Amino acid sequence: MGRVDEYREALRACRDWDSFLQEHSGLPGPRGNIELGRAAAEEAGPDRIRAWLAWDANRAPTGTPGEFLAFCGVMGLGRLAVEGDGAALPQLRRCASDGRWRTREAVAMALQRIGSTDFERLMNEMVEWSAGDCLEQRAAAAVLCEPALLTTPERVAGVLAVLDRITASMVDRDERRSDEFRALRKGMGYCWSVAVAAGPAAGKRAMEAWIGHGDLDVRWVMRENLRKKRLEGMDPVWVARQQAALSGSGEA
Question: Are 67 and 61 in contact, with CB atoms under 8 Å apart?
Answer without folding.
Answer: yes
